[in-house]
Amino acid sequence: MSAARPLTALRTLAVIATLPLLLTACGYGSNSTDDDKQTAPAAGAKKLSADEVKIGYFPNLTHATALVGVQEGLFQKELGGTTIKPSTFNAGPSEIEALNAGSIDIGWIGPSPAINGYTKSGGKNLRIIGGSASGGVKLVVNPKKIKSLKDVQGKKIATPQLGNTQDVAFLNWIADQGWKVDAQSGKGDVSVVRTDNKITPDAYKSGSVDGAWVPEPTASKLVAEGGKVLLDESTLWPDKKFVITNIIVSQKFLKEHPDVVEAVLRGSVKTNEWINANPEKAKASANTALEKLSGKALPANVIDPAWKSIAFLDDPLASTLNTEAEHAVKAGLLENPTLKGIYDLAPLNKVLKAEGKNGVDDAGLGTE
Question: Which strand ranges, in their side-by-side order, compose the sheet holding 31-32?
Answer without folding.
Answer: 31-32, 83-88, 52-57, 106-109, 243-250, 126-135, 310-312
